[in-house]
Every structure is written in C-alpha cells, then in structure tokens.
Records
---
Amino acid sequence: MVLDHEKDHASRWAAVVSIAAKIGCAAQTLHEWVKKAEVDSGRRGRRPIGCCRAAESAGAREPRAAPSQRDPAQGVSIFCAGGASQGLWAPVQAMIAFIDDQRAVHGVEPICRVLPIAPSTYHAHAAKRIDPLRLSARARRDVALRIEVRRVFEANFRVYGVRKVWRQMQREGFDVARCTVARLMRAMGLAGVIRGKPARTTISDRSAPSLLDRVNRQFRASAPNRLWVSDFTYVPTWAGFVYVAFVIDTFARRIVGWRASRTAHAGFVLDALEQALHDRRPARSSGLIHHSDRGSQYVSIRYSERLADPKGSAANPGSNHRSAASAKAMTTLWPRRSMAFTRPR
C-alpha cells in the first residue's frame, strides 16, 4: 500500500505516516514492514554489495573438501535443508542410539560421515555410560534424583504432579528446585492426574462440507484486510473456564475483533467477526480471505450466513452452506473462506 501510493505524497515517510494512521499502527513499524517487503520482493538488497563481494572472495580462498569427503561449509543435505528452525536436525541422543544399533554393521566413523556428529562426540558419550564418574556434577545428581522422583510418584498412586512431588521431596529433606523436578518428570514421561474435564475448543462438524485451505500455512499478507484468521481459546479462572474468540489481521498481527464468553457457542465467535467488520469495514475489491479451523462454531449456519449477507459491511462474502454447490461457488464470491484441517485439542 505504501509503495503503491508513495507517488501521491511528498516523500516515502509522508506516505508511511499517512497510511499508518489509517491502519492503526506506528509509523516506524510500518516503515520497517515496507523495507522487509522490498527485501522479499528483490527491490532492496539484503546486504551491501561490498560485503557480498568480500564474502565471495573469502569463500573462494577457502579450501574445498575432497570429492569423497563431506564439505564442512555445506554439511549433509538431509540435515542442512531448512536448518534447525524447521526441526530437521536430529537430536544427539537419537543419533547416538542409531550408531549403537548400526556400529556392528557399518562402523562408527562411516556413520559419522553421514550424520552431523563427530566420532569423538559419540566416544565421549560411550565413555560416560561406562564410567559414571566422567559425567558432570549435574548429570550425576540427575541420576540420583530420577530414582527419588519416580519413587515418590509411584508411592502416591501415580497421581502427583510436579508441585506435589516437589513438596513431598522437600518434606523428605531433598534440596531440589521445582524446575528440576519438572524437567526430570518431563524427561521420564511422568505426569499427574488433572482434576476436572479437559476443555476442548475444536470440535469438528463432520456433517458440514469441507472447504479448501487457501492459506496453506502461509500466514502473510501484502496489505491490511487481505487475510484474517479466526480462532478461540480458553482461559482457566477461579470461577471456571472463560472462552475468548478473536480475529487477527495477519498483515499487522493485530487483533481486529474479540469476544469473551462463558460458553463456546456460535454467537460469541460471530460477535468477534462483527466487531472486526465494524472496525475495519473492508472494501469489496480488497480480496479478503477468512481463514479458520473446522470447528462447529465456524461452520455453523449463523456464521456462514453472516459471511454470505450482501447487506452487511462484508459486502457479499462467500459462505459455507450445507450444499456442495454452495461450497463450490465459494471460489468466486468475496471474501473467500479458507479452513485448516486441525486435530481436536
């Protein structure tokens, strides 16, 4: 939006200040978004040219790996692609267990050439398993505390949680922190019994027609009122659970509509949508997409009819009626609805 209307103002900053006041965000924040958008589109470089040339010349002087050896700069493709942020790095303990199973067939060093682990790392872990004195002070203390934590947990009929196990160990004279007990119980897979009935927010309506997921987990928008995501959660209080529904504009990551209720009915998620429509009043030509999960509240007739009401501020949006023909017509109506197939929580 700033890039499109920059020519209508005296400077870019003037355009940023004018548009930021209309969409309800800080001017400096909008300016940062514009610079990031230019980087993503290729209009602005990520680094100065001199830095890139220096990096390329430095990389050209570095020795390359032999044809049959692993390049330390690139690593192995099965673990390098996506990086650790994508969850593709294998845990060290998992790789050590794999080497233990396959070392008799392939050997340690050939496996380490494929996996991102050094042979010295594996041999160090193996030596610590043989000689516990090689372990660190914390690791040796964890070995002793694991026995006591499991003993207290089993002695109390496997119902104690972290707090009660920690209190019992304090009464028995163990000087241990609560976070340490929580860490050890999580590592051993121990969990106490929770009172009451667990709250479920996503209850799918299998009888309703399924819509296509138009977002495909790409929660990015190029301008305001292009992509809204809706969901609701629960907050435990002393008086019980309070459900909170919200509608978020993914461009500014801003909540444009919300509502709280004691019950998870379709009306309170509809109130959040009404607030968002009243606050933003999206234009007919904005191409707004409404994205939600397949919860019964969002596929209800009331919610769908509100999106399909041509007299509303949404201006002839698509709906999710029970007929397949209406669901197919969703691709041509505005705003387009999108639904994600999520597991019940």
---
Amino acid sequence: MTSRRLALTDSVRDRWFRALHAGRQPRIVRAALRFSVCWGGLGAGGVTFAAMISLTAGLTILVSLARAFLGDRPELIALIIDVVNDVVPALINDGSNNGLIPAATLIRAPGWSLTALVSTVVVLWGAATMMTGMRRTVRQMFGLGGAPLPFAMGKAIDLAAFLALSVAIIVSSALVSAVTFLSEQVLHWLSVDETFSYVLLQVAAVLLAGALDALLVALIFRFTARVRVPRRDLIQGMIIGAVGLGVLRLGGTSIIGLSDNPLLASAAAVGTLLVWINLAMRWLLFTAAWTANPPPAHVPVHPATVYASQTPNYVTMSAPHTLEWAHHPVTGTIIPKPTDPRFDRDRAALAAATGNGTANPAEPAERIEPSTGTAGPSA
C-alpha cells in the first residue's frame, strides 16, 4: 500500500511538473514571468512618480521661456499649445478643451524669475532620476540588473537620453501635425472626396506616429539602456511597443474628451496623465521582456532551494556560512539550488534543442546563471 501510494504521488508530481514545463514555454508567458519576477509594475510606478516631478518643473521652464521669447507672438504660443496638447491631451487650456493651465498665463511680459532658475535644477535632477529608473528597469527586463553601468557614465547617458527623448517626442508630434496639414492641402488641391480624405489623413497620421514610436522604443533600448538586441528581436519589440503606445495615446485623448464638465475635465487630465505614464511604462517594460526572449523562469520557487527555512535566509557577512551559497556577486541575490526536478527537465529540453546531447538528470549543474534565477531584482 505504501509503495503504491508513493508511486501515485510521484506520478501526480511528475504530471504537475510536465504541466508547468509546458505552460512556461510560450514566449508571451516567459515575457510575463520576467516582467513579474523582476518587479516590472513596481518599477513602472517609481518611474511614473519621477516623471510627474520632472514634468511639473519642465512646464515651469516652458512657461518662463514662453514669457521671455514669445510674449508678443500669440500665433507661436498657439503652436506651442497644440504641440503640448498633442503629447499630453488637455494639459493647456486653449479655450476649447477645459485644460488645466490657462493659455493666457503664457502670454506675459518677458523675463526669468527665481522660480524658473530653481525649477531648472529640479527638472534636471528629476529628469536624471526618471531616466535612471527607466534605464535600470529596462535593463532588469533583459536580465542585466546585476550589471550596472558606472555612475558617472550612467548619469551622463540619463541626461542625454532625457534631452533626446524630449526632442523626439516634440518633433514627432510637430511632424505629424505638419504632415497632416500638408496632406490636407494636397488632397484639397486634387479635389479628393472629403470623407475619403479625412479617413486617409487619419490613417497616415496613425502610421507616422507609430513609426516614430517604434524609433523611440529602439532609442530607449539601445541608447538609454545600452542593451545590444539582435535585429529580429529588436524589430519585434519596436512593433509591439509602437502598437501599445499608439493605443494608449488614442485612449488618453478619448478619456479626456468624454467629459464636458470643466471640473471633471481638469481632474481627468491629471488622472489620465498619471495613468497614461504608468501604463506606458508598464507596456514598455513588458515589451522589453518580450524583446529579451528570456528562458522559462523556475516559478514557483521551492522554499528548500533558496534556504527559506534557515536563519538568516539571505547572504550576509554576519553568518559566514551563507557566503558559500550560490549567489550573484553584485546584487547578492540567492540562486536557487538545482535540486528541483524542473531544473533537470529544463536542462534536458535545452540540451535536446541545442543539439548538445541529453543532459543527465542525476548530475545537477554546478552553477546556474543569475539571469535564470527567480529571485527579485537588485536595488
């Protein structure tokens, strides 16, 4: 009876491991697991908070620059308002959208103030903080959380990337507006049907914005995060990122347009901005996880493989014996012991897929790469 019960238990457990192994193979599942175990949602929230601080200071500088250089050019003020509202819907009130900031405050006498000077320091610090968070979280999705960049190089890259991204966003929005305007003139000159021309212009604007979003994703991955991605994976990531960001942009505009009440529209602008930035960061990080095409994560982690029942259950100098545990040399993250049958199954599958022969489950690997571990990200 006991042997039959043990055999039944082993059979059930083997079926469970087979189901886990099969369920973790699709790329979308592997990407979702990488996003989850690397705390993608938490990282997106931190970047959102830093982005809001940077955006607030940036608007202060924008207002001061407009007062100093464009105070007597209302037509240029209107152009700035259109570009800003294309990027952040209903942020500036142009008289038709019940935005947060009255446009009249931009048309004033020229001159800088102490507030503008202080906000310049704040926006640079906030921008560096935001880009540092974005860079680290994106690198984490690629399994590079334990390979940080040198501090000075990282900050220089962050500031340069912030300026490049800001210019790219504004230029892309202005470019879409310019192409739409020119296309309207050409179609009018060709006497194209008004309904057909409207649909054609909308499709062209969406495609152009999507192409620019794809380039933006590539810029973040390659220049900001310093990740060298194979071309095929990079193209997939650019397309997925552009589609998601385009849907979020159109959705944010629709949400703002749902309310005709000035109070609700103002609240919706702030709420939409927060939600939009957070969702955009979440999608960017998921896109990074998809682009990384990671191996299956060994989840859930069996407590015995990470010394969960011991005290201490982490690597510390206070307990010298923990230094002998397999851990990441930079972050100190514990690498699960290869005693779980899933490790053996995955090694055998990997060996068969790569043509290296069949791995022997009875001979566990002496070392597992940190990128395949399931512990949380580094600080």
---
Amino acid sequence: MPRRVPLVVYPFLKNALFSKVFKDFLIGWIGERPLRGGVGNWLASRYTSGIMSFAKVDVIVVGVGTMGAAAPYHLARRGASVLGLEQHAIPHTLGAHHGFSRAIRSAYYEHPNYVPLLKRSFALWDALERTSGQRVLYRTGGLYMGPEDAAFITGATRAATAHQLPYERLSSAQLRERFPQFELPSHYTGFLEAEAGFVVPEIAMNAHVEGALRGGATLLGHVKVTSWQVTSEGVRIETNRGAFRAKHVVLTAGAWAPLWSAGLPFALKVTRQTWGWFWPKVLAPFALGTLPTWFIESEPGSGYYGFPMMPEQPGLKLALHQPGTETTAESVDRRIDLAGDEAPLRRCLEGHLPEGNGHLLALRTCLYTNSPDGHFIIDRHPTSANVTIACGFSGHGFKFAPVVGEILADLALLGRTDHPIDFLSMDRFR
C-alpha cells in the first residue's frame, strides 16, 4: 500500500527556509515508491513546480500530441500516476492535431484489421463526449468516389463485407442524383457509409487533456526530452528541466519520432501537407447536414478529400491525401507557397466541385509521419520491455486516438492488450 503524505508537512512546501530540509526528507522517506493517482501527481507538481524533481511515477508519456494526450487520459482513469512531457505548448499547431476536422470511417480500405479498432474508437469518442460535455464527433456520412475498381472503393467494400458494416454502392447516375455538388467522370461510382463523418481535433485534444488533468495526471508543456535510459528501477528521462523516473515510458513523439527511432527496424519519413479553405460560389450544397465527408480517388491510395462547412473556420475545407514534400519536424517550412500549395486544391475544385471554386480564405500546413508501409507502429521497444512506442500514423491516425490511448495504457500497465494489434507490430519489418 503506498504511503500517505502527512498533512503536517504541507506548511513547509511554501517555506524557502525549510525547502532543502523538506526535500531531502521527502525524497528519502518516499524512496523509489511510486505515488499513486491524483495525490501523488498533486504533491509532485505542488512541491516541485520550480525545481522539476518528481518521485517515480507509474508511466511517463513523451509527447503530448494526438496519442500522447489520449494515453494519459486512459492511464489516469485507471488510477495510475502519470506524467506527460511535451516540448511545445499543450496543445500546439506544429504537428498533426489541428485543422478543425479529421475524417473518421469504419469501412477501412487500408486493412480490414483496423475495423475492430475503429468500432471501439467510435464508442470511445461517444464516451468522451459524455464525460466532457463537448461535441467531438459529427456523423455526416462518408462518400467515396472513383472508378469501379478504385482501391478505396474495393477495399472499403471488402472491409464492410467482412465485418458486416452497412453501406451503399452508388452508380454514376445515383451519384449525380443524390450528390449534384460533384462533377465526376461518367465511369465513376460511389461507396456511401452512413456512420462515417469527422472529429474536431482541437475539441478532442482539449477533452483528452482536461480529462487527464482532472483525473490526476500531470502534464508539463515546454519540457524537451534529451535522452532516456533503462535502469534497474525502470526508466530515467533527462530533459531541459530536470530528470524524471518511471516504471514505464510511452513514446508518442509524432513527427519528432525519427529522433528516437535509431536502431529500430524501420525508417520514418516526415512530409509537409497542406489544407485549404475556400468560400464557395454557392453555399447551400456545402453546408453541414447536406455535404458528407468525402473522398475522390485520383490514383490508387491517393486522392482529394474534404468536409462540410463548419463555424470554427469559414469556408469549404479540402486537401490532397498523399505524402507531400519530405522534411523533418525541425526543418519544415511552414510558410505558405501560394503557387505550390493552392494549385492542386484549385484543380480539384475546378474539376469536381465547380460551385465550391470560390475565393481562397486560408492555407495551413501539418505533418504526416509515414511508416514504410503506411500502417501504424504500436509495439514494445525491442530491447527495452518497459518502453512502448506508438508512431508512423501515416496521415490516417487521428480517428484512432482514443483506442490507441486505451491500448497504450494496457501495454504500460499490463504488458499486453486484448485489442487486435499484431498486424501493427514492428516485427513486420524484420
């Protein structure tokens, strides 16, 4: 049973005269025992906010982005003492958890084994809405368009059939009748998934972060990890603001993951991506409740996608889903190149959404962190059993955030998970 901190020591916390004496006493008295849940995190943050010295916690999460916010949320809900370290602000707009909308769908063409994870993810998004009181998920329907043999359509059909998901296949004539916003070649067909839609990443991030904090987690912004080392007691993390210790570490570094992947059997590629927002010539066809979340395949595995108009950002959002210019998280040029960034989006509007082809309102950038095969990597570190890695989400990971957080909590606390993630192991690269 973890020791309780006597209330009589609290007056010394703010007394500089006793600070060193108290610190030596406290650290010696606690020793290597983890402080559990809210009390442990509260004491550590209250006393050490200036000196950045924590008693050992159960889990440290490095990188509090998409997955690194979901993991502390689920860890804290299980009563674990958890510390999240983020080198930037929490949240920030330098990675891949901004942009006002992220598509979510169940009929996953990329691999049918994602479908059970998505079913759980939908349920967890719904639960997050209930606990946070915030709207996170919009079920607008998902419409995927392309030639009849398009990889997106044939793969989605296989996944829906294998997992008994409801869907509709639409002929070219049915597409024109039901979705006249789109101008498509006569041989294009459609796949319609009624339960698909989008998640609002800023609201989702805030809900996970605040839920983790209210559950007793400690999350620290502007703390840059410089190294980690496995010890006989667990893992020691060195940062620009001191050292931290945990029984287990979860690395969710996003676009900064390549800095930590040396010696692992895969190479990650970071690419610069662009979204655009345009003010349509005619508004009604693109309103929320009328326009579904959509995708038009331009070549196998790539294509344009977009969303209905939302109040958080004026305009019609669309983007090109394919790896962009290779870069790094440190060297990426986030400045907008009008000629290079607007042109491919304008081609989509001109060719497929003529009534949406209005004035440009905004261009924004984000980063993909691409694995060699486009599938996620979620696994134990091959040489350190008390380090778990989650990376390489390849531009399609945000929708999975709550279930990945649940998986990472399983691996950190139990050493296993019941979720089907064998196909995401790094063993496939050996």
